[in-house]
Protein backbone atom coordinates (compact mmCIF):
# COMPACT_ATOMS: atom_id res chain seq x y z
CA UNK A 1 0.00 0.00 0.00
CA UNK A 2 1.14 3.55 -0.46
CA UNK A 3 2.21 4.95 2.87
CA UNK A 4 3.09 8.55 3.53
CA UNK A 5 5.71 10.25 5.62
CA UNK A 6 6.02 14.05 5.57
CA UNK A 7 6.34 14.59 1.88
CA UNK A 8 7.47 11.08 1.22
CA UNK A 9 5.41 8.31 -0.20
CA UNK A 10 6.41 4.65 -0.32
CA UNK A 11 4.58 2.74 -3.00
CA UNK A 12 4.75 -0.94 -3.82
CA UNK A 13 4.51 -1.45 -7.57
CA UNK A 14 4.23 -4.75 -9.39
CA UNK A 15 4.87 -5.54 -13.06
CA UNK A 16 2.84 -8.33 -14.59
CA UNK A 17 2.66 -9.66 -18.12
CA UNK A 18 3.59 -12.40 -20.54
CA UNK A 19 7.13 -13.76 -20.73
CA UNK A 20 9.33 -11.67 -22.94
CA UNK A 21 6.96 -8.69 -22.99
CA UNK A 22 9.74 -6.57 -21.54
CA UNK A 23 8.87 -6.19 -17.85
CA UNK A 24 12.46 -6.45 -16.69
CA UNK A 25 13.64 -4.22 -19.51
CA UNK A 26 11.19 -1.49 -18.53
CA UNK A 27 12.43 -1.66 -14.94
CA UNK A 28 16.08 -1.67 -15.99
CA UNK A 29 15.48 1.37 -18.18
CA UNK A 30 13.61 3.19 -15.41
CA UNK A 31 15.97 2.30 -12.56
CA UNK A 32 19.34 2.31 -14.30
CA UNK A 33 18.72 3.96 -17.65
CA UNK A 34 20.06 0.89 -19.41
CA UNK A 35 18.83 -1.50 -22.04
CA UNK A 36 20.02 -5.00 -22.86
CA UNK A 37 19.01 -6.65 -26.12
CA UNK A 38 18.77 -9.94 -24.23
CA UNK A 39 17.65 -9.54 -20.68
CA UNK A 40 18.02 -12.65 -18.47
CA UNK A 41 14.71 -14.37 -17.89
CA UNK A 42 13.34 -13.58 -14.44
CA UNK A 43 12.67 -16.48 -12.08
CA UNK A 44 10.26 -15.84 -9.24
CA UNK A 45 10.64 -12.09 -9.12
CA UNK A 46 13.26 -9.38 -8.86
CA UNK A 47 13.15 -6.41 -6.53
CA UNK A 48 14.22 -2.83 -7.27
CA UNK A 49 13.63 0.53 -5.75
CA UNK A 50 13.65 3.94 -7.34
CA UNK A 51 12.72 7.37 -6.10
CA UNK A 52 10.85 9.97 -8.10
CA UNK A 53 9.98 13.56 -7.26
CA UNK A 54 6.52 14.49 -8.41
CA UNK A 55 5.18 17.93 -7.55
CA UNK A 56 6.16 18.38 -3.90
CA UNK A 57 6.19 14.73 -3.06
CA UNK A 58 9.00 12.22 -3.16
CA UNK A 59 7.70 8.85 -4.22
CA UNK A 60 9.82 5.82 -3.46
CA UNK A 61 8.77 2.93 -5.66
CA UNK A 62 9.42 -0.57 -4.40
CA UNK A 63 9.21 -2.47 -7.62
CA UNK A 64 8.47 -6.17 -7.98
CA UNK A 65 9.34 -7.43 -11.41
CA UNK A 66 7.71 -10.84 -11.78
CA UNK A 67 8.35 -13.94 -13.89
CA UNK A 68 6.15 -14.07 -16.97
CA UNK A 69 5.65 -17.75 -17.62
CA UNK A 70 2.10 -18.91 -17.01
CA UNK A 71 2.97 -21.44 -14.34
CA UNK A 72 4.57 -18.75 -12.20
CA UNK A 73 1.13 -17.24 -12.01
CA UNK A 74 0.50 -19.13 -8.78
CA UNK A 75 3.16 -16.98 -7.09
CA UNK A 76 1.74 -13.67 -8.24
CA UNK A 77 -0.58 -12.88 -5.32
CA UNK A 78 2.44 -12.58 -3.05
CA UNK A 79 3.73 -9.79 -5.26
CA UNK A 80 0.55 -7.85 -5.95
CA UNK A 81 -0.78 -8.19 -2.40
CA UNK A 82 -0.70 -4.74 -0.88
CA UNK A 83 0.57 -3.14 -4.08
CA UNK A 84 -0.39 0.50 -4.62
CA UNK A 85 0.21 0.25 -8.35
CA UNK A 86 0.58 -2.25 -11.14
CA UNK A 87 1.97 -2.01 -14.66
CA UNK A 88 0.51 -4.67 -16.90
CA UNK A 89 2.88 -5.10 -19.80
CA UNK A 90 2.27 -6.58 -23.22
CA UNK A 91 4.35 -6.66 -26.37
CA UNK A 92 2.73 -4.74 -29.26
CA UNK A 93 4.11 -7.36 -31.66
CA UNK A 94 2.30 -10.21 -29.91
CA UNK A 95 -1.48 -10.58 -29.79
CA UNK A 96 -1.10 -13.42 -27.28
CA UNK A 97 0.68 -11.14 -24.89
CA UNK A 98 -2.23 -8.68 -25.09
CA UNK A 99 -4.64 -11.51 -24.25
CA UNK A 100 -2.48 -12.36 -21.24
CA UNK A 101 -2.47 -8.73 -20.18
CA UNK A 102 -6.26 -8.70 -20.13
CA UNK A 103 -6.24 -11.76 -17.89
CA UNK A 104 -3.94 -9.99 -15.48
CA UNK A 105 -6.26 -7.00 -15.43
CA UNK A 106 -9.20 -9.27 -14.61
CA UNK A 107 -7.27 -10.91 -11.82
CA UNK A 108 -6.22 -7.60 -10.29
CA UNK A 109 -9.78 -6.32 -10.51
CA UNK A 110 -10.89 -9.35 -8.53
CA UNK A 111 -8.02 -9.75 -6.12
CA UNK A 112 -6.06 -6.54 -5.99
CA UNK A 113 -6.61 -3.45 -3.88
CA UNK A 114 -9.64 -1.48 -4.93
CA UNK A 115 -7.53 1.68 -5.05
CA UNK A 116 -4.68 0.21 -7.01
CA UNK A 117 -3.41 2.47 -9.79
CA UNK A 118 -3.20 0.31 -12.89
CA UNK A 119 -1.26 1.12 -16.03
CA UNK A 120 -1.33 -0.77 -19.29
CA UNK A 121 2.00 -0.64 -21.13
CA UNK A 122 2.22 -1.61 -24.79
CA UNK A 123 5.94 -2.24 -24.91
CA UNK A 124 8.35 -2.62 -27.85
CA UNK A 125 6.71 0.37 -29.52
CA UNK A 126 9.91 0.78 -31.54
CA UNK A 127 8.98 -2.35 -33.51
CA UNK A 128 6.26 -0.60 -35.49
CA UNK A 129 6.73 -2.79 -38.56
CA UNK A 130 5.93 -5.93 -36.53
CA UNK A 131 2.93 -4.48 -34.72
CA UNK A 132 0.02 -6.85 -34.05
CA UNK A 133 -1.91 -4.84 -31.47
CA UNK A 134 -3.14 -1.39 -32.41
CA UNK A 135 -2.91 1.47 -29.97
CA UNK A 136 -6.61 2.18 -30.53
CA UNK A 137 -7.64 -1.31 -29.46
CA UNK A 138 -5.50 -1.18 -26.34
CA UNK A 139 -6.62 2.32 -25.42
CA UNK A 140 -10.27 1.36 -25.78
CA UNK A 141 -9.69 -1.64 -23.53
CA UNK A 142 -7.85 0.48 -20.98
CA UNK A 143 -10.63 3.09 -20.95
CA UNK A 144 -13.28 0.47 -20.39
CA UNK A 145 -11.39 -1.00 -17.50
CA UNK A 146 -10.20 2.08 -15.71
CA UNK A 147 -6.52 1.75 -16.56
CA UNK A 148 -4.34 4.38 -18.07
CA UNK A 149 -2.51 3.40 -21.20
CA UNK A 150 0.82 4.21 -22.77
CA UNK A 151 2.91 2.63 -25.46
CA UNK A 152 6.48 2.31 -24.28
CA UNK A 153 9.86 1.26 -25.57
CA UNK A 154 12.45 0.10 -23.09
CA UNK A 155 14.88 0.13 -26.01
CA UNK A 156 14.47 3.79 -27.00
CA UNK A 157 13.30 4.83 -23.51
CA UNK A 158 10.13 6.29 -24.99
CA UNK A 159 7.46 6.86 -22.34
CA UNK A 160 9.29 4.75 -19.75
CA UNK A 161 9.90 7.46 -17.17
CA UNK A 162 6.54 8.94 -18.13
CA UNK A 163 4.57 5.89 -17.17
CA UNK A 164 6.17 5.77 -13.73
CA UNK A 165 5.65 9.52 -13.35
CA UNK A 166 2.02 9.23 -14.27
CA UNK A 167 1.56 6.46 -11.71
CA UNK A 168 3.29 8.56 -9.07
CA UNK A 169 0.92 11.43 -9.80
CA UNK A 170 -2.13 9.24 -9.51
CA UNK A 171 -1.22 7.57 -6.24
CA UNK A 172 -3.63 8.49 -3.49
CA UNK A 173 -1.79 10.63 -0.98
CA UNK A 174 -2.15 12.96 1.93
CA UNK A 175 -2.13 16.57 0.81
CA UNK A 176 -1.20 18.61 3.86
CA UNK A 177 -2.05 22.04 2.40
CA UNK A 178 -5.38 21.25 0.81
CA UNK A 179 -6.43 18.55 3.18
CA UNK A 180 -5.12 19.16 6.68
CA UNK A 181 -7.13 16.27 8.08
CA UNK A 182 -4.78 13.86 6.37
CA UNK A 183 -5.49 10.98 4.07
CA UNK A 184 -9.04 10.39 2.99
CA UNK A 185 -9.96 6.76 3.05
CA UNK A 186 -12.45 5.68 0.47
CA UNK A 187 -14.37 2.43 0.58
CA UNK A 188 -14.88 2.19 -3.10
CA UNK A 189 -12.62 3.11 -5.97
CA UNK A 190 -13.11 6.67 -7.10
CA UNK A 191 -14.81 5.89 -10.37
CA UNK A 192 -14.04 9.18 -12.05
CA UNK A 193 -10.35 9.04 -11.33
CA UNK A 194 -10.03 5.41 -12.34
CA UNK A 195 -11.79 5.88 -15.63
CA UNK A 196 -9.52 8.72 -16.66
CA UNK A 197 -7.05 7.67 -19.28
CA UNK A 198 -3.85 9.09 -20.45
CA UNK A 199 -2.78 9.57 -24.01
CA UNK A 200 0.48 8.11 -25.12
CA UNK B 1 50.66 -33.44 -19.24
CA UNK B 2 50.24 -33.49 -15.51
CA UNK B 3 52.93 -34.25 -12.96
CA UNK B 4 52.59 -37.61 -11.35
CA UNK B 5 55.16 -37.49 -8.61
CA UNK B 6 53.75 -38.14 -5.17
CA UNK B 7 50.30 -38.24 -6.58
CA UNK B 8 48.20 -41.19 -7.47
CA UNK B 9 47.42 -41.50 -11.12
CA UNK B 10 43.80 -42.41 -10.75
CA UNK B 11 43.25 -43.43 -14.31
CA UNK B 12 45.69 -46.31 -13.91
CA UNK B 13 44.23 -47.73 -10.76
CA UNK B 14 41.05 -49.26 -11.97
CA UNK B 15 40.39 -51.13 -8.77
CA UNK B 16 41.14 -48.33 -6.40
CA UNK B 17 38.54 -46.13 -4.86
CA UNK B 18 38.30 -42.39 -4.60
CA UNK B 19 37.32 -41.26 -1.18
CA UNK B 20 35.46 -38.01 -1.49
CA UNK B 21 34.70 -36.17 1.65
CA UNK B 22 31.70 -33.98 1.84
CA UNK B 23 33.13 -30.53 1.55
CA UNK B 24 33.84 -28.68 4.73
CA UNK B 25 32.19 -30.99 7.14
CA UNK B 26 34.59 -31.21 9.99
CA UNK B 27 32.20 -32.35 12.63
CA UNK B 28 30.56 -35.09 10.71
CA UNK B 29 32.78 -36.53 8.04
CA UNK B 30 30.97 -38.91 5.85
CA UNK B 31 33.00 -40.75 3.34
CA UNK B 32 31.45 -41.47 0.07
CA UNK B 33 33.14 -43.89 -2.18
CA UNK B 34 32.90 -43.94 -5.88
CA UNK B 35 34.13 -47.17 -7.30
CA UNK B 36 35.90 -46.89 -10.59
CA UNK B 37 33.96 -49.75 -12.05
CA UNK B 38 30.75 -47.79 -11.45
CA UNK B 39 31.97 -45.05 -13.68
CA UNK B 40 31.88 -46.72 -16.99
CA UNK B 41 33.93 -45.29 -19.79
CA UNK B 42 36.07 -43.79 -17.11
CA UNK B 43 39.26 -42.06 -18.07
CA UNK B 44 40.74 -39.37 -15.95
CA UNK B 45 43.00 -36.87 -17.56
CA UNK B 46 44.63 -35.64 -14.46
CA UNK B 47 45.77 -36.47 -11.03
CA UNK B 48 44.19 -35.88 -7.74
CA UNK B 49 45.82 -35.81 -4.40
CA UNK B 50 43.96 -36.47 -1.25
CA UNK B 51 44.37 -32.97 0.09
CA UNK B 52 42.48 -31.55 -2.88
CA UNK B 53 39.63 -33.96 -2.44
CA UNK B 54 39.50 -33.13 1.23
CA UNK B 55 39.46 -29.40 0.96
CA UNK B 56 37.90 -28.68 -2.36
CA UNK B 57 35.00 -31.04 -2.81
CA UNK B 58 34.87 -33.04 -6.00
CA UNK B 59 37.81 -32.05 -8.21
CA UNK B 60 36.58 -30.37 -11.39
CA UNK B 61 38.23 -32.93 -13.63
CA UNK B 62 36.30 -35.73 -11.94
CA UNK B 63 33.07 -33.82 -11.52
CA UNK B 64 31.30 -35.00 -14.70
CA UNK B 65 31.90 -38.66 -13.95
CA UNK B 66 31.27 -38.44 -10.24
CA UNK B 67 28.06 -36.47 -10.67
CA UNK B 68 26.88 -38.85 -13.33
CA UNK B 69 27.34 -41.80 -11.03
CA UNK B 70 26.36 -40.23 -7.71
CA UNK B 71 23.13 -38.67 -8.93
CA UNK B 72 21.81 -41.88 -10.44
CA UNK B 73 22.00 -40.52 -13.99
CA UNK B 74 24.26 -43.39 -15.06
CA UNK B 75 21.77 -45.92 -13.75
CA UNK B 76 18.85 -44.11 -15.39
CA UNK B 77 20.63 -44.03 -18.72
CA UNK B 78 21.54 -47.71 -18.48
CA UNK B 79 17.87 -48.72 -18.38
CA UNK B 80 17.22 -47.54 -21.95
CA UNK B 81 18.88 -48.33 -25.27
CA UNK B 82 22.12 -46.48 -25.95
CA UNK B 83 20.53 -44.62 -28.82
CA UNK B 84 17.76 -43.12 -26.63
CA UNK B 85 19.01 -39.55 -26.64
CA UNK B 86 19.89 -39.45 -30.31
CA UNK B 87 16.58 -41.04 -31.25
CA UNK B 88 14.72 -38.55 -29.09
CA UNK B 89 16.50 -35.58 -30.63
CA UNK B 90 15.82 -36.81 -34.15
CA UNK B 91 12.18 -37.57 -33.35
CA UNK B 92 11.44 -34.11 -31.98
CA UNK B 93 13.37 -32.13 -34.55
CA UNK B 94 11.27 -29.48 -36.25
CA UNK B 95 8.28 -29.94 -33.93
CA UNK B 96 6.74 -26.79 -32.55
CA UNK B 97 4.92 -26.74 -29.22
CA UNK B 98 4.24 -24.00 -26.66
CA UNK B 99 7.26 -25.37 -24.79
CA UNK B 100 9.59 -25.13 -27.79
CA UNK B 101 8.48 -21.55 -28.42
CA UNK B 102 9.22 -20.61 -24.84
CA UNK B 103 12.58 -22.37 -24.97
CA UNK B 104 13.49 -20.49 -28.16
CA UNK B 105 12.58 -17.29 -26.43
CA UNK B 106 14.82 -18.02 -23.46
CA UNK B 107 17.92 -19.33 -25.28
CA UNK B 108 19.55 -15.92 -25.78
CA UNK B 109 18.38 -14.91 -22.30
CA UNK B 110 20.27 -17.68 -20.49
CA UNK B 111 23.54 -16.35 -19.08
CA UNK B 112 23.75 -13.87 -21.98
CA UNK B 113 27.29 -12.99 -22.91
CA UNK B 114 28.75 -16.35 -21.87
CA UNK B 115 31.57 -17.20 -24.28
CA UNK B 116 30.12 -20.57 -25.22
CA UNK B 117 26.47 -20.62 -24.14
CA UNK B 118 25.78 -17.40 -26.00
CA UNK B 119 26.94 -18.71 -29.36
CA UNK B 120 24.96 -20.50 -32.07
CA UNK B 121 26.44 -23.84 -30.95
CA UNK B 122 25.67 -23.11 -27.31
CA UNK B 123 22.11 -22.13 -28.10
CA UNK B 124 21.62 -25.22 -30.30
CA UNK B 125 22.97 -27.53 -27.65
CA UNK B 126 20.89 -26.02 -24.85
CA UNK B 127 17.87 -26.12 -27.12
CA UNK B 128 18.25 -29.83 -27.83
CA UNK B 129 18.54 -30.68 -24.14
CA UNK B 130 15.53 -28.58 -23.12
CA UNK B 131 13.35 -29.50 -26.08
CA UNK B 132 14.28 -33.18 -25.68
CA UNK B 133 13.28 -33.07 -22.06
CA UNK B 134 10.04 -31.22 -22.78
CA UNK B 135 9.00 -34.20 -24.89
CA UNK B 136 10.28 -36.78 -22.42
CA UNK B 137 8.03 -35.32 -19.73
CA UNK B 138 5.18 -33.34 -21.22
CA UNK B 139 3.76 -32.62 -17.75
CA UNK B 140 6.81 -30.51 -17.08
CA UNK B 141 7.32 -29.42 -20.65
CA UNK B 142 9.46 -26.37 -20.17
CA UNK B 143 9.65 -24.35 -17.00
CA UNK B 144 11.64 -21.14 -16.87
CA UNK B 145 14.57 -21.77 -14.56
CA UNK B 146 15.42 -25.08 -16.19
CA UNK B 147 17.28 -23.06 -18.81
CA UNK B 148 19.83 -22.01 -16.19
CA UNK B 149 20.07 -25.48 -14.67
CA UNK B 150 20.55 -27.15 -18.05
CA UNK B 151 23.06 -24.52 -19.12
CA UNK B 152 25.26 -25.11 -16.10
CA UNK B 153 24.95 -28.87 -16.55
CA UNK B 154 26.12 -28.49 -20.15
CA UNK B 155 29.15 -26.52 -19.02
CA UNK B 156 30.13 -29.11 -16.43
CA UNK B 157 29.21 -32.39 -18.10
CA UNK B 158 30.96 -31.59 -21.38
CA UNK B 159 28.68 -33.86 -23.40
CA UNK B 160 25.16 -32.85 -24.23
CA UNK B 161 23.79 -36.32 -23.68
CA UNK B 162 25.17 -36.52 -20.14
CA UNK B 163 23.71 -33.08 -19.39
CA UNK B 164 20.35 -34.36 -20.59
CA UNK B 165 20.50 -37.36 -18.26
CA UNK B 166 21.55 -35.18 -15.35
CA UNK B 167 18.55 -32.95 -16.00
CA UNK B 168 16.32 -36.03 -16.16
CA UNK B 169 17.60 -37.51 -12.91
CA UNK B 170 17.33 -34.16 -11.17
CA UNK B 171 13.69 -33.69 -12.07
CA UNK B 172 12.65 -37.31 -11.77
CA UNK B 173 14.61 -38.48 -8.74
CA UNK B 174 16.76 -35.94 -6.95
CA UNK B 175 14.40 -33.00 -6.51
CA UNK B 176 10.96 -32.97 -4.95
CA UNK B 177 8.03 -33.98 -7.13
CA UNK B 178 6.25 -31.36 -9.20
CA UNK B 179 8.83 -28.72 -8.55
CA UNK B 180 8.56 -27.46 -12.13
CA UNK B 181 5.28 -28.82 -13.37
CA UNK B 182 1.99 -27.10 -13.91
CA UNK B 183 1.52 -24.76 -10.94
CA UNK B 184 4.92 -25.32 -9.30
CA UNK B 185 3.17 -27.07 -6.41
CA UNK B 186 6.36 -28.87 -5.36
CA UNK B 187 8.12 -25.54 -5.12
CA UNK B 188 5.29 -24.14 -3.01
CA UNK B 189 5.62 -27.11 -0.65
CA UNK B 190 9.36 -26.58 -0.38
CA UNK B 191 8.85 -22.91 0.51
CA UNK B 192 6.58 -23.86 3.38
CA UNK B 193 8.96 -26.50 4.63
CA UNK B 194 11.73 -23.93 4.49
CA UNK B 195 9.66 -21.39 6.38
CA UNK B 196 9.10 -23.89 9.19
CA UNK B 197 12.79 -24.75 9.32
CA UNK B 198 13.72 -21.10 9.55
CA UNK B 199 11.26 -20.71 12.39
CA UNK B 200 12.94 -23.58 14.22
CA UNK B 201 16.54 -22.70 13.49
CA UNK B 202 16.50 -18.91 13.45
CA UNK B 203 13.45 -17.99 15.50
CA UNK B 204 14.39 -14.36 16.04
CA UNK B 205 15.10 -13.75 12.35
CA UNK B 206 11.89 -15.55 11.48
CA UNK B 207 9.86 -13.40 13.85
CA UNK B 208 11.52 -10.22 12.60
CA UNK B 209 10.85 -11.09 8.96
CA UNK B 210 7.25 -11.94 9.76
CA UNK B 211 6.86 -8.52 11.35
CA UNK B 212 8.23 -6.92 8.18
CA UNK B 213 5.82 -9.02 6.13
CA UNK B 214 8.76 -10.51 4.33
CA UNK B 215 7.90 -13.89 2.88
CA UNK B 216 10.98 -16.08 2.46
CA UNK B 217 9.76 -17.26 -0.91
CA UNK B 218 10.47 -13.77 -2.23
CA UNK B 219 14.09 -14.90 -2.42
CA UNK B 220 13.89 -18.67 -2.13
CA UNK B 221 11.77 -19.30 -5.22
CA UNK B 222 14.70 -18.49 -7.48
CA UNK B 223 17.06 -20.51 -5.30
CA UNK B 224 14.96 -23.66 -5.43
CA UNK B 225 14.01 -23.44 -9.10
CA UNK B 226 17.46 -22.54 -10.42
CA UNK B 227 19.24 -24.59 -7.75
CA UNK B 228 21.20 -21.44 -6.84
CA UNK B 229 22.76 -21.20 -10.30
CA UNK B 230 21.37 -17.70 -10.79
CA UNK B 231 22.18 -16.50 -7.29
CA UNK B 232 25.57 -17.83 -6.22
CA UNK B 233 28.93 -17.49 -7.99
CA UNK B 234 29.24 -20.54 -10.24
CA UNK B 235 32.11 -22.15 -8.35
CA UNK B 236 30.04 -22.04 -5.18
CA UNK B 237 26.99 -23.36 -7.04
CA UNK B 238 29.02 -26.33 -8.26
CA UNK B 239 30.09 -27.14 -4.71
CA UNK B 240 26.46 -26.98 -3.61
CA UNK B 241 25.53 -29.32 -6.44
CA UNK B 242 28.31 -31.74 -5.39
CA UNK B 243 26.44 -32.17 -2.13
CA UNK B 244 23.02 -32.01 -3.79
CA UNK B 245 23.74 -35.05 -5.92
CA UNK B 246 25.05 -36.90 -2.91
CA UNK B 247 22.48 -36.01 -0.28
CA UNK B 248 19.41 -35.01 -2.25
CA UNK B 249 17.04 -32.07 -2.34
CA UNK B 250 17.15 -31.31 1.37
CA UNK B 251 20.57 -29.78 0.71
CA UNK B 252 18.82 -26.85 -0.94
CA UNK B 253 16.92 -26.18 2.27
CA UNK B 254 20.15 -26.44 4.21
CA UNK B 255 21.88 -23.88 1.99
CA UNK B 256 18.94 -21.50 2.09
CA UNK B 257 18.89 -21.72 5.85
CA UNK B 258 22.64 -21.14 6.00
CA UNK B 259 22.33 -17.94 3.96
CA UNK B 260 19.84 -16.52 6.44
CA UNK B 261 21.90 -17.80 9.37
CA UNK B 262 25.07 -16.12 8.08
CA UNK B 263 23.39 -12.73 8.05
CA UNK B 264 21.31 -13.17 11.19
CA UNK B 265 22.50 -9.99 12.89
CA UNK B 266 22.25 -7.80 9.81
CA UNK B 267 18.78 -9.11 9.05
CA UNK B 268 17.61 -8.27 12.55
CA UNK B 269 18.65 -4.66 11.92
CA UNK B 270 16.70 -4.44 8.66
CA UNK B 271 13.50 -2.50 8.91
CA UNK B 272 12.16 -2.89 5.45
CA UNK B 273 11.47 -5.66 2.95
CA UNK B 274 13.81 -3.98 0.48
CA UNK B 275 16.65 -3.99 3.01
CA UNK B 276 16.18 -7.70 3.58
CA UNK B 277 16.30 -8.42 -0.15
CA UNK B 278 19.44 -6.32 -0.52
CA UNK B 279 21.21 -8.03 2.37
CA UNK B 280 20.38 -11.47 1.04
CA UNK B 281 21.30 -10.67 -2.56
CA UNK B 282 24.51 -8.97 -1.57
CA UNK B 283 25.41 -12.06 0.39
CA UNK B 284 24.61 -14.62 -2.28
CA UNK B 285 26.20 -12.68 -5.12
CA UNK B 286 29.47 -12.37 -3.21
CA UNK B 287 29.78 -15.86 -1.77
CA UNK B 288 32.96 -16.60 -3.69
CA UNK B 289 34.27 -18.87 -0.96
CA UNK B 290 32.16 -22.04 -1.01
CA UNK B 291 33.56 -23.15 2.35
CA UNK B 292 32.02 -20.15 4.03
CA UNK B 293 28.56 -21.31 3.03
CA UNK B 294 29.13 -25.04 3.43
CA UNK B 295 30.62 -24.65 6.89
CA UNK B 296 27.56 -22.82 8.12
CA UNK B 297 25.25 -25.23 6.34
CA UNK B 298 26.77 -28.36 7.80
CA UNK B 299 28.71 -27.42 10.88
CA UNK B 300 26.65 -24.66 12.42
CA UNK B 301 23.20 -25.86 11.57
CA UNK B 302 22.58 -29.56 11.33
CA UNK B 303 18.85 -30.03 11.25
CA UNK B 304 19.18 -33.55 9.98
CA UNK B 305 17.04 -34.61 12.91
CA UNK B 306 14.09 -33.01 11.13
CA UNK B 307 12.40 -35.49 8.89
CA UNK B 308 12.11 -33.46 5.71
CA UNK B 309 9.97 -35.91 3.77
CA UNK B 310 7.51 -36.00 6.65
CA UNK B 311 7.46 -32.20 6.69
CA UNK B 312 6.77 -32.14 2.96
CA UNK B 313 3.89 -34.58 3.32
CA UNK B 314 2.50 -32.40 6.05
CA UNK B 315 2.53 -29.29 3.86
CA UNK B 316 1.14 -30.84 0.69
CA UNK B 317 -2.58 -30.69 1.55
CA UNK B 318 -2.35 -27.01 2.51
CA UNK B 319 -0.57 -26.12 -0.73
CA UNK B 320 -3.05 -28.08 -2.83
CA UNK B 321 -5.98 -26.45 -1.05
CA UNK B 322 -4.47 -23.00 -1.54
CA UNK B 323 -3.82 -23.57 -5.24
CA UNK B 324 -7.30 -25.05 -5.71
CA UNK B 325 -8.98 -22.21 -3.95
CA UNK B 326 -7.11 -19.73 -6.09
CA UNK B 327 -8.11 -21.48 -9.28
CA UNK B 328 -11.73 -21.51 -8.20
CA UNK B 329 -11.66 -17.81 -7.43
CA UNK B 330 -10.26 -17.04 -10.84
CA UNK B 331 -12.44 -19.56 -12.58
CA UNK B 332 -14.48 -17.08 -14.54
CA UNK B 333 -11.32 -15.49 -15.89
CA UNK B 334 -10.50 -18.82 -17.48
CA UNK B 335 -6.82 -18.67 -16.62
CA UNK B 336 -5.70 -21.83 -18.26
CA UNK B 337 -2.13 -22.96 -18.60
CA UNK B 338 -1.22 -22.41 -22.21
CA UNK B 339 1.67 -24.83 -22.31
Give a quick rundown of the structure.
The complex is a heterodimer of chains A (200) and B (339). Chain A is an alpha/beta fold.
Average pLDDT of chain B, to the nearest integer? 83
Summarize model confidence as the mean pLDDT of chain A: 87
Query: What do we call the CATH homologous superfamily of the largest domain in chain B?
Result: Ypt/Rab-GAP domain of gyp1p, domain 3
Q: Structural class given helices, strands, pairing of chain A?
A: alpha/beta
* Through-space gap between termini of chain A: 26 Å
The DSSP helix count of chain B reads: 17
Organism (chain B): Ambrosia artemisiifolia
GO molecular function (chain B): GTPase activator activity; small GTPase binding
Protein name (chain B): Rab-GAP TBC domain-containing protein
Domain Rab-GAP TBC (chain B): 57-248
Question: How does this structure look, described?
Answer:
The complex is a heterodimer of chains A (200) and B (339). In chain A, 29% of the residues lie in helices and 25% in strands. Chain A is α/β, with parallel strands linked by helices and 200 residues long. Chain A has one domain: 3-Layer(aba) Sandwich (Rossmann fold), CATH 3.40.50.300. In chain A, a hairpin with a 3-residue loop joins β1 and β2. The longest helix of chain A is centred in the middle third of the chain and has 17 residues, at 95-111. The relative contact order of chain A is 0.18. The model of chain A is unreliable at 175-184 and 188-200 (pLDDT under 50). With 339 residues, chain B is mainly alpha-helical. Chain B has 3 domains: 1-61, no CATH class; 77-174, Orthogonal Bundle (Helicase, Ruva Protein, domain 3), CATH 1.10.8; 185-322, Ypt/Rab-GAP domain of gyp1p, domain 3 (Cyclin A, domain 1). Chain B contains 17 helices and 2 strands. Chain B has helices at 50-56, 63-70, 73-78, 84-92, 98-106, 120-136, 146-157, 160-174, 185-201, 203-211, 217-226, 234-247, 250-262, 264-269, 273-285, 290-301, 308-329; strands at residues 17-21, 31-35. Chain B has a two-stranded antiparallel ribbon with strand order 1-2. The interface between A and B is large, with 32 and 43 residues.
Amino acid sequence: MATTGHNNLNAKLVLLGDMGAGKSSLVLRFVKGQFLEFQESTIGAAFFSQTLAVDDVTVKFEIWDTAGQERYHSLAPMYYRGAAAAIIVYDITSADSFTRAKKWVQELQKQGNANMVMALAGNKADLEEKRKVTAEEARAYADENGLFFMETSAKTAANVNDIFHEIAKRLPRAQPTQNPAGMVLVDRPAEGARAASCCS
Amino acid sequence: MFGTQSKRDLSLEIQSQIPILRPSIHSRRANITVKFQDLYGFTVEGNVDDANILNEGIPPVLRPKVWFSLSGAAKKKSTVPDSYYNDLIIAVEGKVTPATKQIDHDLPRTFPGHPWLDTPEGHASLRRVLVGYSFRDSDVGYCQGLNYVAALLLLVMKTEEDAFWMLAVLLENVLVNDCYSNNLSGCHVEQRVFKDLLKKKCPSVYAHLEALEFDVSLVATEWFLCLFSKSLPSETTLRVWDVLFYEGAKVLLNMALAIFKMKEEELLMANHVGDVINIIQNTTHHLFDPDELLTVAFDKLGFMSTNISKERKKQEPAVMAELDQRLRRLNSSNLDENS
